[in-house]
Amino acid sequence: MPAAAVAMPLRAVAASAAVPPAVRELDAAALALFDAAETGRWPQARAALDRARQAAAEVGALEAAYTEAGGELHRFYAAKNAIGGDLIEARTALAAKDRRWLVSVADRLIARAGELALPFAPRADAVTPRIETLLFLARRMRRALVWEDPVGYREAQRDFESLWKSLRGELATSVDAKRLDALDAALARAARSRTIADARALHDAVMALRADRRTR
Q: What is the pLDDT of residue 174?
């Protein structure tokens, strides 16, 4: 999937107090599920899935807030229904202890949370969506490693490198140079080693960059 086609994930708008807590919790639980599934930590995956189910149960009450924020009702129901299906699928994948399957479902749940948060997103910031796309691409690299998909990994890596090359200069005046250098180093390691640990470190470096930018 081309980077431009990626919808803005929830973490792009999580700083806004208007984003409903249930949506923020769904996103956090889905990412925890992704992290646990990636390395086969099944008790942690089970706990994360329980969190996601609890958050999803509260999403149904958000219809009014979603439409008042400018969201289209059919999109709300599409996301809500898809989440229900994803949770059922995640439970089956967890019961089978299938890392590939579960990490893919968790990735979809992260995207669903992002879809629910979109109406609450600020529209003026052009940099934030691209940082969030870097997170998506880093997660895609991680997923490719779980799936033992070297072609998918290389494609995601190339997309990441291309986007980062265009974005890095724009961040020079708003982000500490050490943070930018740390991401450069993490990307080089992930490109060289192609290990889960280094791909996750790249994801963490993007999250740290995003947090650093927000505090300035």
A: 82
